[in-house]
Amino acid sequence: MTDAFVSLKKLDKQYPGHHAVRGIDLDIRTGEFVALMGPSGCGKSTTLRLIAGLDTPTSGEVRIGGRRMNDVPAFQRDTPMVWQSLALFPFLSVVENVEFPLRMKRIGPVERRRRAMEWLDRMGLSAMAGRDIAQLSGGQRQRVAIARALVTQPPVLLLDEPLSALDAHLRVRMQTELSRLHKELGITFIYVTHAQSEAFALADRIVLMSDGAIQQSGRPQDVYREPANAFVAEFMGMNNILSGTLCGRDGAFARIDTGAGRFRIPAGALPSSGPARFVVAADRIALSAAPAPEADNRLAGTVIGIEFVGSVQTVFVEAGGAEFRVQKQQHEIDALDLAPGRAVHLSWQPAHAWVLPQNT
Ligand code: ADP
Ligand code: MG
Question: What is the mean pLDDT of residues 107-113?
């Protein structure tokens, strides 16, 4: 990719006794909003710190704007970072906090006050300029931290789980605000989170990591619908992963024998025999009181439980010796009168199965 703004090349970080980042390659375009996602300890923050220059790589390269950054100290990189524990200065007022990076850049007092006030105004905080940090709410502090990070007009903003200390209501409001800022400023955002909902709400692209390596990089909907391997499918949640033995083809579809039954799946590049694995997303499975007459892929099961998590519910069904998760709206659950112990029939279209690549 030639228009990469932030470029990581075979980037590697080994701590004594722990290999935190394992030679990752990643190109991020100017203006892109990328979410680094993955379970706790997978190396997200380390990757961000390597980009910011708060940590040095064991090997490999960080390039920003075409320039090798390995030996450029953090304060000369123009890569401000916002994180959960805000690191605002308690002994400075709100406006002085926002002015601070401009002071470091030796911008004169009048100009830096003007620019800091402009940012406070933009973040809806001008009335609080003279206050102490301690007099602000969590959400207001987070907005001060964002203003302080952006006041120098950096080309990239790094965010490390910036909203995880906020309550759910405030988190959603701040997501909207970050999204708006990203659109208005047109700069690159690199956003670390372990929360799928946040990544999906905000990012143009998801980079999913595990154990120091990138598992998949792509648009949220593609990572969700077309997981590169079983780790991704499981991390995305709400997927049913089935494995079995291929037993023939017909046209664009292959037949596969699994412990739960024989199914049709997209044949793609599959061989005609041997082991294979596929995923059926929980929202792709239909439930019915009687067997679906035309369906290629169907099996009978028993409801084990229903998890109520808002407008969409998860129905757990035991079928063919496997446990399936099925997502349904409440009215569909009511219409079928589903409850634990009830018999139910599952079916899905062959084209809605996603075959996991071999050797993953
Ligand atoms: P994440 O942000 O994805 O939760 P981190 O990048 O913070 O993960 O950490 C990745 C791994 O590296 C973790 O196992 C962590 O314990 C380890 N690690 C992070 N910083 C250090 C350090 N300074 N010294 C030793 N190990 C570290
Ligand atoms: Mg972290």
Answer: 96
